Known about the structure:
Elements: H1 2-24, H2 32-35, E1 52-62, E2 67-72, E3 78-83, E4 88-93, E5 99-104, E6 109-114, E7 120-125, E8 130-135, E9 140-146, E10 151-156, E11 162-167, E12 172-177, E13 182-188, E14 193-198, E15 204-209, E16 214-219, E17 225-231, E18 236-241, E19 247-252, E20 257-262, E21 268-273, E22 278-283, E23 289-294, E24 299-304, E25 309-315, E26 319-324, E27 330-335, E28 340-348
Antiparallel strand pairs: 1-28, 2-3, 3-4, 4-5, 6-7, 7-8, 8-9, 10-11, 11-12, 12-13, 14-15, 15-16, 16-17, 18-19, 19-20, 20-21, 22-23, 23-24, 24-25, 26-27, 27-28
Amino acid sequence: MKGSVKRCPVAALALITALALCAAAGCRPSSNDALKAPVAEEEAPPWLSGRVTGLELLTTLKVEAGPKSVELMPDGRHLWVNDLYAHRCFIFSIEDYARTMAISLPDEPVEVDFSPDGREAWVSLYNSAKVVVVDIDGGAVIASVPTGAVPKEVQVSPDGRWVYVSNWDSNSVTVIDAAARAAVKTVPLYGTPRGICFSPDGGLAYVCVMGGDTLAVFDTAGGHLVTKQIYCGENPRHVLCTRGGEYLYVSNNIPGTVTKLDRLNGTILGTAKVGSKARTIALTPDEGWLFVCNYDDNAVGCVDTASMRQVFTRGCSKPIGMAVSPSGDRLFVSNYAPPQVSVFAITREESGEESGVGP
Length: 359
């Protein structure tokens, strides 16, 4: 108690002095809110949002014969087109639509995926039972790896360690060690495989059994074993995983539907009726909208992923592959015939975003 009596006057004097100095400087006591640390404004995502209302044709990129697929490249500024019957791949700038490179291949290119650093492209060759590795800067084939018969989908794991290839005529999946550029395993399936995607952490791979009605789930860390089959509707062709890994979307070719699944428990959350021969699908970056190639309808469909309802279609000749720009302002569609890539502006309801077409 004695110590407290001695210190109180000193503390009081210090407080009085501080208040006097503050008053002299024109200060006013701050409220509790003013004493709180300033809260940084949440940074807006680097893509557009808002309800998609349509597609407006901007231009077409001419190729040579049967563009089978189109993919956005890792730099987000270029587009890769596999021109099947021309035995060539083309690279276009998405800024000015100039063709920047043509790469000759020994056979018909079907699908492509890229190393995480963007330096190499893995391309499946339809008739050759192999995939080739293309050095993108040099525009030349630098390696090849044998696969099963008629390789189709190619997917590189998020860490770049594995390359999965679906073998159409062999009813199997080839697993490739990307660094060694060698196949380490061939996994037989009960039906024809097609689309492939990885979970965000790369721990699981999902393969469409197009000759059946399931996704085969591979454990990439557990010897690439198929751990289960998830029912996803008849004739699944293409599969996508959302950025956070919550959902899987599957195109069902013969039924003409798109199926939404809870990835973790494997349950179907909704099915959208789209068009005849639903082929490739692509999500907008905000994941609120999904585009689908309705091949036999000569149309592209747009699905609201919340309601799982196709909200509109847009005429487009023989759409077979597609990709969305990083900002979500454009859709690129490869047309099997005539041989071209259609570039569409994705129109949205005005919601305050800056307009304009950018990469």
